[in-house]
Write a structure and sequence with these properties.
300 residues; seven-stranded mixed β-sheet; disordered N terminus; binds S-adenosylmethionine
């Protein structure tokens, strides 16, 4: 009897972490990993399961960024009540219908995560219940994905994200350290950051140039902050705009604060006008934002 060629759909339990299976599915759907979408697929089931277990609690709701061929989606679906996965690439969306389309608690949405309305997802997909967020993030928009989530007002419980190791180091850096930058001060205002474990570049196909790390971001209680959120973000961005310049210069030139007011604001916060933004902690930025707000220079 002639043996019929297997299709992805006919495979009852697809081993989506197997490099052979990944290339078979890509071939079947006439796809190739796209660099422009940061497509590096996880091919280590232990790592996939570890990420899934960190990402969502049993029976929780979870939003996944960039499911690819669905390896993490599949693992999440075994734990969660509902998984909603956002994928930009129409080719992947087509493949996902075959790899995870039969899982009753998975919904795939074809959309650019950066354009996604998180409030709508929260209300319509998760019944207004707090939810988890996770993803093996596309490296070209890692910072944008992180900032979109932490700056949002949706009640996410935690955001478990895989990213390049040096980005993870930047998120955890403290004022004055080499890796400290605008993203450290921005994320640090909204959430605590914890690096869970490193992941070797050998755990992906195609193999990227650098190693990765899995980071858990947990928003501060109630997502309430001591100063206006938009103002804080604006101040941090403004103060890092010209990294090599002093905070006084950035206040005047980037944020447009009159010179005498800049001097007064810095004096009132006890900050040294000649230092650079990389020396300012989250608390320093909070104090600076508060002083600027009370003088009416930044805000909503
Ligand atoms: N989750 C899969 C895995 O771990 O094997 C794939 C991860 S791959 C690093 C990133 C995925 O994000 C790709 O599937 C890519 O197409 C998708 N992606 C890239 N940019 C995106 C965007 N703006 N919105 C949603 N998905 C995106």
């Amino acid at each position: 009897m002639m043996k019929e060629a297997k299709t992805a759909k006919e495979d009852k339990v697809m081993n989506l972490a197997s490099p052979k299976e990944i290339s078979r599915i890509l071939g079947e759907f006439q796809l190739a990993p796209l660099k422009k979408f940061g497509q590096n697929f996880l091919c280590d089931q232990n790592i996939v399961d570890k990420i899934a277990n960190e990402s969502v609690q049993p029976q929780g709701y979870v939003l996944e960024i960039g499911p690819g061929l669905g390896v993490l989606t599949q693992a999440l679906s075994k734990i969660a009540n509902k998984v909603v996965s956002i994928e930009i690439d129409p080719g992947m969306v087509e493949a996902l219908a075959h790899t995870v389309g039969d899982l009753p608690n998975v919904k795939i949405i074809h959309q650019d995560f950066l354009k996604l309305d998180l409030e709508e997802i929260y209300q319509e997909e998760f019944d207004g219940q707090p939810f988890f967020i996770c993803g093996n993030l596309p490296y070209y928009i890692t910072s944008k994905c992180l900032l979109k989530v932490v700056e949002s007002r949706v009640p996410y419980l935690s955001f478990t994200a895989m990213m390049q190791r040096e980005v993870a180091a930047r998120l955890q850096a403290q004022a004055g350290e080499r890796d400290y930058s605008a993203i450290s001060a921005s994320i640090g205002f909204f959430a605590s950051v914890n690096t869970l474990f490193d992941v070797s570049k050998n755990c992906f196909v195609p193999r990227p140039d650098v190693d990765s790390a899995v980071v858990k971001i947990t928003p501060y209680e109630g997502n309430m902050r001591p100063v206006d959120r938009e103002a804080y973000v604006k101040v941090v961005r403004g103060m890092f705009a010209m990294r090599r310049k002093t905070i006084y210069n950035n206040l005047v030139k980037t944020l447009g604060v009159p010179k005498d007011m800049a001097t007064k604001v810095l004096e009132s916060t006890g900050l040294d006008a000649s230092q650079r933004a990389e020396m300012l902690s989250v608390d320093d930025f909070i104090a600076l934002t508060g002083a600027l707000l009370s003088n009416g220079y930044v805000g909503k």
